[in-house]
Structures are given as structure tokens and as C-alpha cells.
């Protein structure tokens, strides 16, 4: 119990390694649940506040709009939305398996590693 709490505190210290948000811009991911299940993409934006990531082409909603005037003819527009981090998994650049992210502490930096092959995941 104690060890777990210590680890969380440690992770909170560094802004970009908040618990739950291990993905970074440029990471390749695969969607594991929902309508886009099985689709791959690249993280373009990370939203730490609500644990979501934006991946182009993933989680696109179609919205029907009514015609308002000539400038807004209406129809169906595609609206990509950020997706919950829990719905995606990282695809390791080294072994290309989907994997959870682990951490390894080097001298003065903490690096992300693939839990499957142990290779460093570039950030
Ligand atoms: Zn790997």
C-alpha cells in the first residue's frame, strides 16, 4: 500500500507524467474499445485535464445540421472528438505490439518503456 502511494506522489511531481496520462504527442496508438476498435492513429494532442487524447480520424462524429442560410447550407459535418485514454493502447515502436507503458528510472530522468520488449519509447 505504502509503495503504491509513494509512486503516485512521485508521478504527480512531473507535470507531463500524471497518473493515467502516459501518452504523448506523436505516440502511435490502437483503439481497443468502441466504434473505432482496431483502428490505429497518432496522438496529436493530449488533454491532461480530462484524460483524453486527440487522434486525427479517430472518434469522428457525424453531426447533422440544418440549413440556416447560404453560408451554412447544412448537411452532415464530421466532428472529431478527443477519446478517453482508457480506450486506446500504445503501439510500441520497437516490437509493434500493443502494450502498457512502464517506467524506468535512469540517473536523472525517467523514461517510458514498453512492457512487452523493454525498449525505450521515444518521447
Ligand atoms: Zn515493445
Write the layout of secondary structure elements.
Elements lengths: L1 H12 L14 E4 L8 E3 L2 E3 L4 E3 L5 E6 L9 E6 L2 E2 L3 E4 L6 E2 L1 E5 L4 E5 L9
Antiparallel strand pairs: 1-2, 1-8, 3-4, 4-7, 5-6, 8-9, 10-11
The structure holds zinc ion.
Zinc ion (ZN) binds next to loops.
How would you explain this protein's 3D organization?
The chain has one helix at 2-13, and strands spanning 28-31, 40-42, 45-47, 52-54, 60-65, 75-80, 83-84, 88-91, 98-99, 101-105, 110-114. The radius of gyration is 18 Å and the shape is elongated. With 123 residues, the chain is mainly β. Strand 10 (101-105) and strand 11 form a beta hairpin. Residues 8-18 have low confidence and may be disordered. It folds into two domains: 23-91, SH3 type barrels, CATH 2.30.30.30; 94-123, no CATH class. The longest helix has 12 residues, at 2-13. Zinc ion binds next to loops.
Amino acid at each position: 500500500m505504502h509503495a503504491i502511494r509513494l509512486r503516485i506522489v512521485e508521478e504527480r511531481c512531473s507535470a507531463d507524467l500524471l497518473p493515467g496520462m502516459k501518452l504523448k504527442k506523436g505516440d502511435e496508438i490502437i483503439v481497443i474499445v468502441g466504434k473505432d476498435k482496431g483502428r490505429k492513429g497518432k496522438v496529436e494532442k493530449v488533454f491532461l485535464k480530462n484524460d483524453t487524447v486527440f487522434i486525427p480520424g479517430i472518434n469522428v462524429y457525424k453531426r447533422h445540421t440544418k440549413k440556416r442560410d447560404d453560408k451554412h447550407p447544412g448537411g452532415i459535418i464530421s466532428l472529431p472528438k478527443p477519446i478517453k485514454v482508457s480506450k486506446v493502447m500504445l503501439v510500441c515502436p520497437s516490437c509493434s505490439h500493443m502494450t502498457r507503458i512502464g517506467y524506468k528510472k535512469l540517473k536523472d530522468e525517467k523514461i517510458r518503456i514498453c512492457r512487452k520488449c523493454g525498449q525505450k519509447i521515444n518521447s
